[in-house]
Amino acid sequence: MSLAVWVGIALLGGVGACARFAVDLLVSVRQRGSFPLGTLAVNLSGALALGLVAGALADGDAQRLLATGLLGAYTTFSTWMFQTQRLAEDGAPRAALANVVVSAALGLALVWAGMELGEAI
């Protein structure tokens, strides 16, 4: 992998992290309650986008830049798990379970839909 790709991944990672913060903030300030809708919105939109990238692009530098750099930094597994654990700790085990089930089920469906869409492009 070239130095340019490494730098590109780092730069796009910064863009992805900033986008994650912005989307999470936009969703979170409009919601009531403690369910992590911002993280859900980020991860579901990221799953769809990753499916599109995987379906539309063959393996290569473009896919590395978009999938690893941009979308790898945009989506967040660790925050999702932390927020799920926090829901359970705070006495909301049903919300914690719903966060896992909804995120996983919809995430898988959206990555599949994105791949189908990407392959059709």
Index terms:
5 helices, 121 residues, mainly alpha
Could you please describe the fold and organization of this structure?
The protein has one domain (3-120). Helix 1 (3-28) packs antiparallel against helix 2 (37-56), helix 2 packs antiparallel against helix 3 and helix 2 runs parallel beside helix 5. The protein has helices spanning 3-28, 37-56, 61-74, 77-89, 93-120. It is globular and about 50 Å long. The protein has 121 residues and is mainly α. The two termini are 27 Å apart. The mean pLDDT is 96. The chain is built from five helices and no strands.
Strand residue percentage: under 5%
Q: Helix amount, in percent?
A: over 70%
Structural domain tally: 1
Kindly state the mean pLDDT as a whole number?
A: 96
Amino-to-carboxy terminus distance: 27 Å
Order of helices and strands: HHHHH
Tell me how many strands there are. 0
Radius of gyration from CA coordinates: 16 Å
- Summarize the biggest pleated sheet: none
Helix run count: 5
Overall shape: globular
Uncertain spans: none
Structural class, from helix and strand content? Answer: mainly alpha
